[in-house]
Specification:
Helix content is 11%, strand content 56%. The protein has 288 residues and is mainly β. The protein has a single domain, classed as Porin (Beta Barrel). It has a 14-stranded antiparallel barrel. Strands 8-9 form a two-stranded antiparallel ribbon. Strand 8 and strand 9 form a beta hairpin. The termini are far apart.
Length: 288
């Protein structure tokens, strides 16, 4: 084996390890976006938030009419496993909303892109349905290993049982679509189901959800949030069976929202997150 082949072999195994770190720590690579959700252990399927545009589009009609946001996640304090995302959403009318998002993971030697369009429609202000269409692109820095791309879609539902209790459901890649490309074998994208509830009571919120990847064990997530005042929020959460805990705070100043979070994995360590959002117009509904 010559030096060039040795270099490529080492490079390949390094990328494989990075990939396994992400999958091992979360169950799969399709992670929630937004420091608010991540501070509550990733519970997002039934929690109204700006980043519902990515996490479960069905919730968009219940959020602010318009908004833009930026998110950064420094997973395990490694630049190689960090991701950055942007998003925007706007109301089309009183009961429907449209959103756009883009998410980048990795670094110059290995990168993943997820670009998507989301649409949601609410009915009688108690039920909504969301649809997301995604374009995915994965590439290696060394052209020898090539790249791959593909399309998939997501569907979600959200319902209000009463003023305090709401339910959410989301399915990622229901058709089990694949990615393919140059020098790459076909890769079947994960099929992921999420179901959860959100319960609000005096100055507090409790959120729980179950997640099932078709090919891996189920995950349980639980998050809680406390409204200290109208501008400051404290949040925390945990996930099982791969034990991980998270904490975070939220700050609101007029239309500007800042969320900061950090999660801790028992084996892989800390992952700090930061999200900044700016909303236009009056907020329709708010989960802490």
């Amino acid at each position: 084996m010559d030096k060039k082949q040795k270099k490529r072999t080492i490079y390949f195994f390094f990328l494989l390890i990075l990939s396994e770190i992400t999958v091992f720590s979360t169950g799969h690579a399709h992670l929630p976006m937004g420091a608010k959700a991540l501070s509550m252990a990733g519970t997002s399927v039934a929690v109204i938030d700006f980043w519902s545009v990515y996490n479960n589009a069905a919730l968009m009609p219940f959020h602010s009419p318009k908004g833009i946001g930026l998110h950064y996640d420094n997973r395990f304090l490694l630049k190689e496993t960090s991701c950055i995302g942007i998003g925007a959403q706007c109301s089309l009318d009183e009961s429907s909303a449209l959103g756009l998002y883009a998410k980048h993971y990795g670094y110059r030697n290995y990168t993943e892109w997820n670009v998507g369009l989301a649409y949601a429609k609410a009915f009688a202000e108690v039920f909504s349905f969301g649809l997301q269409c995604d374009y995915l692109f994965h590439a290696f820095g060394d052209k020898h290993y090539g790249s791959r791309h593909g399309f998939t879609f997501e569907m979600g539902m959200y319902g209000k049982i009463n003023k305090e209790l709401s339910l959410g459901f989301h399915i990622y890649n229901p058709a089990r679509l694949k990615m393919g490309g140059k020098n790459q074998a076909a890769y079947t994208l994960p099929l992921i189901f999420r179901f959860g509830f959100c319960y609000s009571f005096t100055h507090c919120l409790l959120s729980c959800e179950m997640e099932k990847d078709w090919d891996t064990p189920s995950l349980f997530r639980m998050g809680i949030a406390y409204e200290a005042n109208k501008t400051f929020y404290i949040r925390g959460g945990l996930s099982l069976p791969t034990f991980s805990v998270s904490v975070g705070v939220g700050l609101v100043y007029n239309h500007l929202i800042l969320d900061v979070a950090s999660s801790y994995h028992g084996i892989l360590g800390y992952s700090p997150q930061l999200s900044i959002m700016y909303t236009f117009g009056r907020e329709k509904n708010k989960d802490i």
